[in-house]
Amino acid sequence: MVAKVVLVAALVVAGLYSVYLIRDVIGLVLISVFFALAIAPPVERLDELGLPRWLAILVVYLAIAAAIVGIGLLIVPPLVEGIDGLSEDIPSYVEDLRQNETFREYDDRYDITSSIEEQAAELPSRLGDAAGTLRDVTVGVFSSFVQLFSILVITFFLMIEGKRLLAFFYRQLPPEREKRLHVVADDISDAISGYVFGAFVIAILAGGITFITLSALSVPFALPLAIIFGFFCLIPLVGATIGGILVAIVVAFTSFPVGLLIWVAVLVVYQQVENNLIVPKVYGTVVRIHPLAVIIAILIGATLLGVLGALIAIPAAAAVQAVVRDFWEYSDRNLGRLAASAAANIDPEDEPGDAALPDVPGTAS
């Protein structure tokens, strides 16, 4: 008995250590699965239109790459040029701000303008640091081109052979367990694809509203700021607030206080409309998680994978929720089945109320 316990413990430790050694590979596979589920809707649509599946996957890959390059071309060159121009124009912006009596009062009290001018002088030198941070966020997530290529290849084969692999795996299970796994897999797939579609729609709406507002206020870099704000809106709960503050800082330099007040009003109204109308309509019932669970998921995802982890935290939490929900429903069904079986095995003739009365000595029979 002791030998068996020691053997099982040794096997468990060896298995956990093996998982630790290949943790990077497991991470790549999980990212590939998420990516495959995310691009499944457009691939399926192209497949229905008669395009070969392998070509449909490549078309989606090229479209994503073109979108990333296009966004980079829209943001980076104007941003570099704008930072140089902003560092030169900030003194004049500060003088314009000092024309406002309220700002001048706070400036005289807290010496705001001198701090702004010092920071402005350091902007060009900090551009390299910003580029390094951007590189860490994008390239550092996968750490090398080889890993990125591996993810694309694994995703490609999952999209080609995924249905057959799942069908083979389902056939190895008992019928009841196969049915349960089908339901869980469908829930996870719907949650991930629904979240990606919803996030894409919300980012476009947020960027469009930001671009229209900033263009109406004649704020420079309206398009790059709109793209940045749309990107931040991909981060649930806190993303729109952080992006809105960054945009507000730029607006404050160019249109204070009227433009800043208008932007704050637009931001507040947009967040209310998004939270109460857009999110329930776009996401529907596929991604319905408690806000506390959302915050915890974002913190865990950001700790594990940085920005990428924060972006995929919600669909990952939805997948965990689908598994937990199936477990509880199955447990409830089992308890109900056991209760019904126990009730069926009770013989009504043995119930206490129907038991025969014992014979009493001395009474007539």
Q: What does this 3D model show about the protein?
A:
With 365 residues, this protein is mostly helical. The protein has helices spanning 2-21, 23-48, 53-98, 101-110, 112-121, 123-142, 145-171, 175-216, 222-232, 239-254, 258-283, 291-305, 307-344. It is elongated, with a radius of gyration of 30 Å. The protein starts with a helix and ends in a 21-residue tail after the last helix.
Tell me, briefly, the overall form.
elongated
Q: How many H/I helical runs? A: 13
Q: Output the structural class.
A: mainly alpha
Regions with little confidence, pLDDT below 50 for 5+ residues: 353-357
Order of helices and strands: HHHHHHHHHHHHH
Strand content: under 5%
What integer is the average pLDDT?
A: 76
Tell me the major beta sheet: none
Helix content: over 70%
Number of strands: 0
How many angstroms separate the termini?
63 Å
Radius of gyration: 30 Å
Write a brief structural summary:
The chain is mainly α.
Topology diagram in text:
Layout: H1 2-21, H2 23-48, H3 53-98, H4 101-110, H5 112-121, H6 123-142, H7 145-171, H8 175-216, H9 222-232, H10 239-254, H11 258-283, H12 291-305, H13 307-344
Helix pairs in contact: 2-3, 2-7, 2-8, 3-5, 3-9, 8-9, 8-11, 8-13, 9-10, 10-11, 12-13
Q: What are its keywords?
A:
mainly alpha; 365 residues; 13 helices
